[in-house]
Amino acid sequence: MNKTQYQFGVTESFPCAYLNDQKERLLVAVDDALKDVAHYETLMQLGFRRSKDHIYRPHCERCQACQSIRIPVTRFKPSRSQKRLLKKNQNLMVNFIQAPLSDMKWQQYYQMFSRYIEQRHTDGTMYPPDVEQFNSLLQTDWMLTGFLEVYQNEKLVAVAIVDCMSDSISAVYTFFEPDAAHLSLGTFAILELIRLANVRRLSYLYLGYQVDECRKMNYKTRFLPHQRLIQNHWWDVEKTT
Questions:
Q1: Strand partners, 148
Q2: Which is nearest to 126 in space by CA: 162, 163, 171, 175?
């Protein structure tokens, strides 16, 4: 990013979505000049993410638990269990499409998203599912959004929503049919996004934030090697401890 001065704001503190005993605060990019693909990719390298048109990163007063995590895709090596999963799911078909979605496709996605939230995440911040919340994952005026679709016997069973940039892909959200959970579709989708990034000769797949104390997020650490942003420096993690 050049030396132009940009505007950022800091939110009030509010209950943390990941750790029950912590307060969360965000640093938010309020300058519209930052809202394009090139600036956003640079901001992601500094630990930012987007929610709809809002670009933010954690800026908490007493906690540094949130760490941006990304996979350098050319260096990634699937584990034995990940290789077994790929072999187990070799009959699944993967398709990648880009926004905008047709009305029929939107309805298909939303119905599966609703089933996913209602059956697997009743204790999360997205419960109960609603249209505005769902659209916040899909829609932005300045980012090219893509959708990795997974089919089993011509039935759509999973969707990974991603942001597509010049040198990276950012995984926004993945949801799947609850009755297909035995296929480990969340892990499978990440493996397929790594493959897609390699095909496109991109450098990174961003997976959002990692919070080690949050059990539901620890699946991200099983993709090795990965990198974490700690004190504004990307550190390599070659193996789990």
A1: 96, 160
A2: 175
pLDDT tens track for 46-72: 999 998 889 999 999 889 999 999 999
Q: Which two tokens stand for residue 56?
A: 């933010």
d(CA 54, CA 56): 6
Handedness of CA 47, 50, 56, 62 (dihedral sign): negative
Cβ distance 211 to 66 under 8 Å?
Answer: yes
Class of domain 69-237: alpha beta
Q: In angstroms, rounded to a whole number, what is the distance separating the alpha carbons of residues 158 and 176?
A: 4
* pLDDT tens sequence across 66-119: 999 999 999 999 999 999 999 999 999 999 999 999 999 999 999 999 999 999
- Mean per-residue pLDDT, 7-33: 93
Domain residue ranges in the chain:
8-66, 69-237
Alpha helices in the chain (DSSP H): 37-44, 80-88, 103-120, 131-138, 185-199
User: Pairing relation of β-strands 54-58 and 26-29?
Assistant: antiparallel
Contact (Cβ atoms closer than 8 angstroms) between residue 227 and residue 69: yes
* CA separation for the pair 93, 152 (Å, rounded): 7
Q: Are 31 and 8 in contact (CB under 8 A)?
A: yes
Evaluate whether 169 touches 151 at the Cβ level (below 8 Å): no
3-state helix, strand, coil in the chain (%, to 5): 30, 30, 40
